[in-house]
Protein 1
Amino acid sequence: MTDFPRVPALSVHDLRKTYDNGVEALKGISLDVQPGDFYALLGPNGAGKSTLIGIISSLVNKTSGSVKVFGVDIDSHRDAAMRLIGLVPQELNFNMFEKPLDICVNYAGFYGIPREVALPRAEAVLKDAFLWDKHDKMSRTLSGGMKRRLMIARALMTEPRLLILDEPTAGVDIEIRRGMWETLKRINAAGTTIILTTHYLEEAESLCRNLAIINHGRIVAEGPMKALLAKLDVEGFLFDIESEIPQQLPHIEGTTLIALDNHTIDLEMPRAMDLNRVFEAFDAAGIRVRSMRTKSNRLEELFVRMVADSVETQA
């Protein structure tokens, strides 16, 4: 692949978009995504994520601001910038009566890639997506997960340096979703920068190193995933209990205890609190802990707080 100078994979500066009906979808968005990153773009419905992606991929006209892809301005060098981007939309938008091999080769042809180059490249991306055994079958016969992987394989036909994924696992079951996570990790490890939008916050926490949370057209939080999660002043744990939980749970000042069922206790506690206090209270109440695990909804807690804080600020 072509070498690029060490500039951001994506640089957005003071991006604004006001639609003809007066809706101000973006209110001065600025962010940088570094080469090789796996970056999450999160926000509630109507926050401005789709508008931002639409502008980056030249599907939506911006009102003002600038967007550069590996230093290439999308206004002055649109074609060059678009050749650096692969977009995987949420909707399945290929011909269901075409074969995966033809879908990939024809897509490459739209970008001027000769058939003799496209054919071996299509074989490679379909093998990477574990779809080569289906390359000559009608795409409508593929499973839901296979169709999602085909969308990604097609986008990779142009060897994009920046891959934008808009809700790539929407509507698929957890087994397929986790299989797609491994596919995306391999693509990222091979050097492709990935921007992911998703409503599955577990997905973002598992895959992404950096993130931005958008609400009402503004960025309300941005930075490394670990650093932002570390700002949370509470931690959550789940305890598996040996015998049935007593009706009256012990009172531990500063914590929230909830019995999820007869054998599971949900705990939220300040990060600074010593867990020994919890175990002492459990022992005094005759509660015997069989095992414990950290709750996996830390990003959800951060997301809810940041969105709520931004609403209060604007009120």
Note: The longest strand covers residues 24-33.
Protein 2
Amino acid sequence: MDGSRASDSPGTDVSDVAVGVADVLAAQARLRRYLSATPLHHAERFGCWLKLENLQRTGSYKVRGALNALLAARERGDDRPVIAASAGNHAQGLAWAAYRLGMQAITVMPRGAPDTKIAGVAHWGATVRLHGDSYDQAKAFACELAQQHGYRLLSAFDDPDVIAGQGTVGLELAALAPDVVLVPIGGGGLASGVALALKSQGVRVVGAQVEGVDSMARALQGDERLIEPATSLADGVRVKEPGRLTRRLLADLLDDIVIVREAELRETLVRLALEEHVIAEGAGALALAAGRRVAGKRKCAVVSGGNLDAGVLATLLSEVRPRAPRRPRRRKRERLATQLSQEPAISGISPRTIHTTMKPAITPAPAGATRRRPEQEVFA
């Protein structure tokens, strides 16, 4: 990776900025001392594995990218104060990382950011500035402050060090040997990092976005319009303009994007809490909501964060009535064993022998062939 950083100035050309698997492996080596691997959980009723990044430090995967960016900057001798715009999780990750490393951090958050996330940032000693009503307005203000004071502007997703840090989620998933991994997409940092880590192993990487909050999906289809995102429970992915570096990576690495309806997202979040006892924020439940439309023998969805306001959760639990999950299908062997156990025994002969002797012949025996006794036939 070269010395230029994609996020140091808002107008920087990222066409020559490189990030690859080697950078993800380097990030894993840096983070190992500070962060433990998050657990995997099999959500049987959903038919999907869950990567529980809601149990990460600060309650989100974002701490990986922020910490890796600060550690990499220290290796380069860059000790400037760091400023970042964030809907909440990137700000919390940066605040915790700066606290651990003894560095100065400033975060700019929208006025409507969840109180839980604002309190989390302040807890770790970072300076909090509330500005604008959306992530993009907060980002513009952070750019102004960075230019005025010489701060390092750290993008929440469009930075090589951040992408490499998020990619360590994919490295931890490799041991599961999934055939498809689902990730939420806002600016594209997590999806880019996970795809870098897993595509060489033949894993399909599928992104998830919300209806009306689908800037990356439109950008990958060639639609460059900047449309104000719709209001959504998934505030963590409400990005008006996706990353330029992440867009270039995902154009090559991403297999598909699923657009989820808001009602599906709300129901999935409630089901996660009630059935799997997993508390996820809106963006954290997004990948699992998309999993209904993705086939795979060994699917895994990244639960990207769990910083959900208690009031929002209480409202959802009182308003949303999820449909009862379908009864699981019994495997063929289990059905067969049940049928055999229910067949009566006659004259001391086991049900297995009865089933075998009553089995009709499918193909007649050839002339001259010696037919085995029924008791000797192999039960299939």
Note: The mean pLDDT is 86.
